[in-house]
Design a protein that fits this description.
Elements lengths: L1 H23 L1 H11 L2 H6 L1 H12 L5 H7 L6 E3 L5 E4 L5 H4 L9 H11 L11 H12 L15 H10 L11 H17 L2 H11 L9 H9 L8 H9 L4 H4 L9 H18 L1 H6 L1 H4 L7 H9 L14 H16 L14 H4 L3 E4 L3 H22 L3 E8 L4 E6 L21 E2 L6 H9 L8 E4 L2 E4 L5 E4 L9 E4 H6 L3 H11 L1 H11 L3 E2 L9 E2 L16 E2 H12 L3 E6 L11 E2 L3 E5 L5 E4 L3 E4 L3 H18 L9 E6 L5 E7 L4 E7 L16 H16 L12 E6 L2 E6 L88
Parallel strand pairs: 1-3
Antiparallel strand pairs: 1-2, 3-16, 4-5, 4-21, 6-13, 7-10, 8-9, 11-12, 14-15, 14-18, 16-17, 19-20, 20-21, 22-23
Helix pairs in contact: 1-10, 2-4, 7-13, 7-15, 9-10, 9-11, 13-15, 13-18, 15-18, 21-28, 22-24, 22-25, 22-27
Length: 811
Amino acid sequence: MNGAIRTRRSRLRRAEAHREGAGRARLGVAVLVALASLAVLALGGIGAAYAVYQHFADEFIPPNEVIEQTSWQSSTFYDRNGNFLYRAVDPVGGLYDPVPLSEISPYLIAATIATEDASFYENPGVNFRGLARAFLENFTPFGPGFLEGSGGSSITQQLVRNLYGRIEEGWFERTIERKAKEVVLALEMRRQYSSDQVLEWYLNQVFYGNNSYGVEAAARNYFGKSAKDLTLGEAALLAGIPKAPALYDPTRPDRPENKERAEQRRQEVLDLLLRHLDTVNRIPPLAERGTVITPQQIEAARQEKIEPRQASFPKQAGHFVDFVEGQVVRMCERGLFKAPGGVDCEEVVTKGGLKITTTLDLGLQHIGEQTVNDILARIGSRYNAHNGAIVAIRPQSGEILAMVGSRDYFDTSPQVQGNVNMAVSCRSHGSTMKVFTYITAFERGWVPSTIVEDEPYEYRGPGGQVQRIRNWNGDVYLGRITVRKALSESVNTPAVRTLEAMGEANVVRTAARMGLTFTNPVGSASCNVPVTERSCGITWTLGTCEVKLLDMTYAYSSLATNGAMAGMPTLEDLPSGYRKLDPSGVLKIEDSQGRVLYEYRPQVDQVVRPAFAYMITDILSKEAINWSRLTIGRPAASKTGTENDFRDNVVVGYTPELAVGVWMGNSDGTPMAQGAFSSSGAGPMWQQFMREALAHLQYPPTPFRPPDDVVLAECDGRQEVFARGVPVTRPGACKSPTGGAEPAVTPTPTPTPSPTPTPTPTPSPTPTLTPTQQPARTPTATATPTPDEDEGTGNNDNGNGRGGRGSNARR
């Protein structure tokens, strides 16, 4: 106890002496301000400089008050069942729970002072020599240019900048006025507070990289120990990082070269420590503890083997949490809730102290993560596929239940790029885009039994070059077939002809209304062009324009509810005519006191007439899912899509209770193996996840029920779908109960090889309605050959993707 009292009295005596010295230096400070700040002061004399000094000094706020004003809390994320997901990193958390100077390694204190401000315990808050050098570099012809030289900032100035920069704009701008104010406030801080107190504040707020704010966080994150236990070699590493954390943080996985840079910087710090060794050994924090650093210790520290580690922050569902963090900020900006305590919306997550209950089901998320890893481990090497993504949405509410953005959130390899969320990245979705083409046609009087042509199709591509649309199986054409057959077996030329008949702009507007938002500029990886503002030509329906898996899954979720989209008011900046709702990642937001700031109440928008949505479902849940062999033992609908050069595999499908989109490929765009069709690549991923997800959610099998505006009519031994009150505008294989065009002549497809036998799936229950008419039976066209099976799980796909490559062959 007596020792503690003596130490405190010693500090008080030093503080008093320091105040007296600072007071005597104030006239000299006026000269300093004249040199380093405003040119008018240099001309106006000491009196004017002193007046400016007083003006800025009057704005001084005690640091403890600044800390209290900004004593915000970071926010915490939970899944829908209260399971912890993540706590946002607090950039100034070290100031709220500071480590006393006596609990910080004397080696770190010494290394910091030697590196940042060797005269710290002697100067009044400003390093005169450094400031003079900065003046010459920034304001005279002897430097690199006006305000282009070094800053010459002391430790106190750095603290002023970091503290006051949190409550006042403009602190990080390189202006004369800002620098002058910084100098004055630094002098005032040291006049009113002891050197030990200023140093303690500084060490508890400085950023050391590796998600570490403050010395205690840095010591624990890098070395798994307290700041008081740092060795000299470890202290030298940390002391060198604040100059440029992006360059000297040796644990950054995206910058492996940082490890060598950090070691070079560590050696520089030890050089500086040796240079200033006499000064450093005299500073009170070392002298009071009887610590003396020797040249021999410094040499030993040079040889010390330093093994820093990357900070390990508990973060589950990383890509989803990142997505929700952005969604919460935009919700605040759009006024869906008010940020507590006057915090800016941009910082509401890091400073608002929010409790954010998300829509995520963590159990389902783990199933998704395990599924991606299982399938890639089993077939990834065969197909040269290294990454996968899954999105799961509840159609009735628009809630995102799972989002797997990559195989491994922390994998930085080029083909995985775990920092990139593939669920919200633009990729080709191949033939899954055909759904929007046929919905547009249904809205113009076409029906699933409408006759379309599958014949060779040529068009002029870029530069006037003639290109041919091919089917997934090459130049094999079926002649005149129904829309039902064309969509379910993903035949390409009918889809292109249909888009041409409807007009690309009309089809794209349908897609935008149903949920697609942005695509990418030609040749760019960015995803920021509204889909209606980029023309991809007639191959749009084959996946030429790249879109987001989240958007596509959301669009398909509206098919599961017969065209009714559920969600929250859109947070996207979208043109008129686009979707009005977004899928939601947030259920509830509470402040630190438990007060509810926001609670999710889904809105519903009918984006497609129920009958037209059901037409698509009827095709995808019967012929399509059987043809691709992606049945899951209960009523389900699915559509596959493969990019033209096998860069992307996609399957999007749904039951009445769950919509799921799956992507497989390589993040850097490296093609997968030739013949890597999506029903044998992404298909098994979709199947496994759907089965396990529905079991986890305990949803019983449910049939797709036709809406009230559907009319079913007997046709060729099955019930065909029509929209009540909508005459058929194009001849079909069945007589329409709603009037319009008469049935066409029986389709006569081109003879094709015998199909590969397909296992008989569990049929989707079909509701029985009284048919309006009983047209004559029409012979069924010869089946399209299904691709080869892949070990009994799925088969090589039918869809395809980007246009504009070579011959535009579609597989």
